[in-house]
From TrEMBL, chain A:
Residues 40-215 form the FAD-binding PCMH-type domain. This is Glycolate oxidase. GO terms for molecular function: (S)-2-hydroxy-acid oxidase activity; FAD binding. Its EC number is 1.1.3.15.
Automatic annotation (TrEMBL), chain B:
Keywords: 4Fe-4S, Electron transport, Iron, Iron-sulfur, Metal-binding, Repeat, Transport. Pfam families: CCG, Fer4_8. Its cofactor is [4Fe-4S] cluster. Its EC number is 1.1.99.14. This is Glycolate oxidase iron-sulfur subunit. Residues 1-29, 50-81 form the 4Fe-4S ferredoxin-type domain. PANTHER family: GLYCOLATE OXIDASE IRON-SULFUR SUBUNIT (PTHR32479:SF17). It catalyses: glycolate + A = glyoxylate + AH2; (R)-lactate + A = pyruvate + AH2. The keyword Translocase does not apply. The keyword ATP-binding does not apply. Component of a complex that catalyzes the oxidation of glycolate to glyoxylate. Binds 2 [4Fe-4S] clusters. GO terms for molecular function: 4 iron, 4 sulfur cluster binding; glycolate dehydrogenase activity; metal ion binding.
Length: 485, 409
């Protein structure tokens, strides 16, 4: 439905960008109706494809002047609906902002535009012996701007940390259209830290300065097959408990292995109820020593087959099964929900048993893929969307898994973000006061609530509006610690 | 358009960076994921708008997305069905219709193509001078003039080439349309290499088009007719294996089962030349060729047939030959069958991108296993004024090595 409130902004966008970069045709607009999470769909009011930071700033200024909400989108691979557009709003797509602006190896950093893919950064410096450490499974597709918004992780974040640990500075467009630089060297509040992971609610990233990491001297990847996830889980706890910090420890259960086999023929050991991928990296002697330890621990915990990837090609083969696991599930199920939750590592066996029980109760299969080292679960809830009621049951199972995570002292999201999908679960983790405090941060950046509204927070609220059911002033305001905008 | 095949797409986006038009334009509608979404819209009742048709037409059909897709979406099938639907439901502007009629009445007919050889040869200089002026009238005609190669002397192939030494197999050989008309020396080299590796080569005269161009352009009826005739030709020749040296033809012929029914197609096994040579293993002696070769992955070989390792292995096995990789090797050069004639601007941008990366390798020779790619990259290199870099087929490099020649391209 063409929204006449957008007529004037669209005219301005055409002046700023030209006709080739403003999409208003309804058929074309619909291709932007969702990101990687497909069960929330909304056709955007208008899509703009800027090529420079100045254009983004000009677009946002138009939005601010007309009170039009805007949503940023990179490659559209997000799994929490963070880039879900609005019919009354503007979708700012950064897919044409994909230049690597500079590479500074002596200082180990690169400056890139937000549409550059995560993997493209690594590819640009690989020959010189460097790489960009965070590696979400979608790294060959997902944009660095999206990584910043979601504080994306990946298999190797166990040792190297998340996006926030690898972003040194950002250029952002604030919700009123100013171009601002945030740097890790700024004195005072860590605004850079606040912005990374803010899921597009504090503004749009237009330039990212990333840390480059020296490629390790040695890398060894081990694939261990277990009879069941419990013994795999015990091995994980024993490895970390033994003081070893692998670059990654990943686990897949039988169903996830089946999907990966069907998709990429990864040839994991036959009959495995679970596989562990353990990657060790660092100086050669250290890796060799740790490798012997890991091997011993796996065997002690019942690994029936151990494979070592000897070269990059073999390592890629081991990882291929894991990295393609999400989409590969499409081979064994017509539809599925990718869940993302966190539990304490020690609670893994118990939580996995509970997931199995819930799955059985509702007749909904759950495949498990997870970053075992940091307790980040990715249960894949499988269902047939043609079967009446199946989607609802899957949604229920998916929600109950999050309940389990919270009950065990974990979190409703490890790395996919809250977005639109999990905003309703925020109240399970946070009290009204917690959420109100977060809202104050949001309001400091975006008092009009135009930047990706409706995401993260369970109930959309304007700044200055009394939050929740509470009457009277916010406790922080009352105590003189905060001021409402 | 099969709704089930459309439903297989889980919208993960892994195809985006492999899609040449997404690489060029960065728009969802010109990515495989976006095009599948458009197909879904049409199946769901949205009429096929000219905008929609434009995004389908802009797809090169390179199949890089099929390689990249973890969910196993049959985009190749989907785009074939979609192109047929576009031909049915969409009325193209007059100029476009005329151009397509010209292309589809010329290229799938080897005899008509051969008839073009003399006028092309006579007008070689004039053509190149004319190309810039043609650009204003029709970019497609300009592209055609620019792409047409210098026409080599006609090579007449015998009906049967005897195996050198002990005969290990008897195989049929497809001569192809563009390959036969413009690169007869590649066919000659293919026949010699096969013979020197111990194969008796049967080359039925008067072979027709295999149907690839029609199938990839939404003309399934023409494709079925041509495929049927091609199969019959080789059956009459009494072979059960047909070796193909053009990637586009090979990929289509491998799908005859889908086109004509598995029963109809089961008598003939289709193999690519590199695939076949790797399979039977070498017997002939390789002589040294001191040359640096950049190998170009033809989409219909790498993506559609999954053949990447074999040609590289064959080339690397030649003593003295140094093989270098081209950056972004999985991105299409823009040739894509008739794409460079029907979508000349996008094809030109992709050609330029490819030429830049080919030249950056510093190789003395570019090896491509598809005549369309050879024409496209050759003309892009010429356009940059940097070349000409010689372009040869794998068969020609092997032929030179087996015969102990300095070069044969």
């Amino acid at each position: 439905m063409p929204d006449t409130a957008l007529d004037e902004p669209v005219r301005r966008f055409l002046e700023i960008l030209g006709p080739g970069s403003v999409i208003t045709d309804p058929v074309r607009l619909r291709t932007y109706e969702c990101d990687g999470l497909t069960h929330h769909r909304t056709s955007p009011g208008v899509v703009v494809l800027p090529e420079t930071a100045e254009q983004v700033a000009a677009i946002v200024r138009v939005c601010a002047r007309h009170g039009v909400p805007f949503v940023a989108r990179g490659a559209g691979t997000g799994l929490s609906g963070g880039a879900l557009p609005r019919t009354d709003g503007v979708l700012v797509v950064t897919s044409r902002m994909r230049r690597i602006l500079s590479i500074d190896l002596p200082n180990r950093l690169a400056v890139v535009e937000p549409g550059v893919t995560n993997l493209a950064i690594t590819e640009a410096v690989r020959e010189q012996g460097y790489y960009y450490a965070p590696d979400p499974s979608s790294q060959q597709v997902c944009s660095i701007g999206g990584n910043v918004a979601e504080n994306s992780g990946g298999a190797h974040c166990l040792k190297y940390g998340f996006t926030v640990n690898h972003v040194l500075a950002l250029e952002i467009v604030t919700p009123d259209g100013d171009l601002v630089e945030l740097s890790h060297t700024d004195p005072g509040y860590d605004l850079l830290g606040a912005f990374v992971g803010s899921e597009g609610t504090l503004g749009i990233t237009t330039k990212v300065t990333v840390r480059l990491t020296r490629a390790p001297q040695a890398v060894t990847t081990l694939l261990a097959a277990f009879d069941d996830v419990e013994s795999g889980g015990r091995a994980v706890s024993a490895i970390i408990g033994g003081g070893i910090l692998p670059a990654a420890i990943e686990m897949m259960d039988a169903l996830a292995i089946e999907a990966a086999e069907a998709a990429v023929a990864c040839s994991y050991p036959e009959g495995a109820g679970a596989v562990l991928i353990v990657e060790l990296d660092g100086p050669s002697p250290e890796v060799a020593h740790q490798f012997a330890e890991v091997r011993r621990i796996c065997e002690e915990n019942g690994a029936f087959e151990l494979r070592v990837a000897a070269d990059p090609a073999e390592r890629a083969a081991v990882w291929k099964g894991r990295k393609s696991a999400f989409a590969a599930v499409g081979r064994i199920s017509p539809a599925y929900i990718v869940q993302d939750g966190v539990v304490p590592r020690t609670a893994l066996p118990e939580v996995l048993a509970d997931i199995e029980r819930i799955s059985g109760e509702h007749g909904i299969r759950v495949a498990n893929v997870f970053h075992a080292g940091d307790g980040n679960l990715h249960p894949l809830v499988l269902f047939d969307d043609d079967e009446p009621g199946a989607a609802e049951r899957a949604e229920l199972v998916s929600g109950r898994i999050l309940d389990l995570c919270v009950e065990h002292g974990g979190s409703i999201t490890g790395e996919h973000g809250v977005g639109i999908d999990k905003s309703r679960y925020m109240t399970k983790m946070f009290s009204e006061d917690d959420l109100a405090t977060m809202q104050l941060v949001r309001c400091a950046f975006d008092p009009e609530g135009l930047s990706n509204p409706g995401k993260v927070f369970p109930t959309p609220r304007l700044c200055g509006e009394a939050p929740g059911v509470r009457r009277g002033a916010h406790p922080l305001v009352e105590s003189g610690q905060a001021e409402q905008f | 358009m099969d709704p089930e095949l459309i439903g297989d797409c889980v919208h993960c986006g892994f195809c985006l960076p492999t899609c040449p038009t997404y690489v060029l334009w960065g728009e969802e509608m010109d990515s495989p994921r976006g095009r599948i979404h458009l197909m879904g819209q049409h199946v769901g009742g949205t009429p096929l708008t000219p905008e929609m048709a434009g995004h389908f037409d802009a797809c090169l059909g390179c199949m890089a997305c099929v390689t990249a897709c973890p969910s196993g979406v049959r985009y190749d099938r989907l785009i074939e069905q979609t192109r047929a639907e576009v031909e049915r439901a969409h009325r193209r502007p007059l100029q476009e219709r005329a151009l397509r009629a010209l292309v589809f009445r010329l290229f799938p007919y080897p005899r008509r193509l051969r008839a073009m050889r003399l006028p092309l040869r006579l007008t070689e200089g004039a053509r190149r001078r004319l190309a810039p002026r043609l650009e204003r009238i029709s970019p497609s005609l300009a592209a055609m003039a620019e792409l047409a190669p210098p026409v080599p002397a006609r090579v007449r192939l015998p009906r049967r080439v005897r195996a050198v030494g002990r005969r290990r197999a008897t195989v049929g050989m497809l001569t192809g349309c563009v390959q036969g008309a413009f690169f007869p020396q590649v066919n000659a080299a293919t026949a010699r290499v096969l013979a020197m590796e111990g194969c008796e080569v049967v080359i039925p005269p008067a072979q027709g088009c295999c149907g690839a161009l029609s199938l990839h352009s939404g003309l399934p009826e023409q494709a079925v007719r041509l495929a049927e005739r091609t199969l019959a030709t080789f059956e009459r020749a009494g072979v059960d294996t047909v070796v193909v040296n053009a990637a586009g033809c090979g990929s289509t012929m491998k799908e005859y089962g889908d086109l004509l029914g598995e029963d109809r197609a089961q008598n003939i096994r289709v193999v690519d030349l590199s695939e076949y040579l790797a399979e039977i293993g070498p017997v002939a002696t390789r002589h040294p060729l001191p040359v640096t070769v950049a190998y170009h992955d033809a989409c219909h070989l790498a993506h559609a047939q999954g053949i990447r390792a074999q040609p590289r292995a064959l080339l690397s096995a030649v003593p003295g030959l140094r093989l270098v990789e081209i950056a972004e090797s999985s991105i299409c050069c823009g040739s894509a069958g008739t794409y460079n004639l029907l979508q000349p601007e996008a094809a030109r941008d992709l050609g330029d991108r490819k030429a830049e990366r080919v030249l950056a390798t510093g190789a003395d020779l570019l090896v491509s296993a598809n005549p369309g790619c050879t024409l496209q990259i050759g003309s892009a290199v010429r356009r940059r004024g940097a070349g000409p870099i010689p372009v040869a087929h794998v068969a020609q490099v092997l032929d030179a090595s087996l015969r102990g020649l300095d070069r044969a391209w």
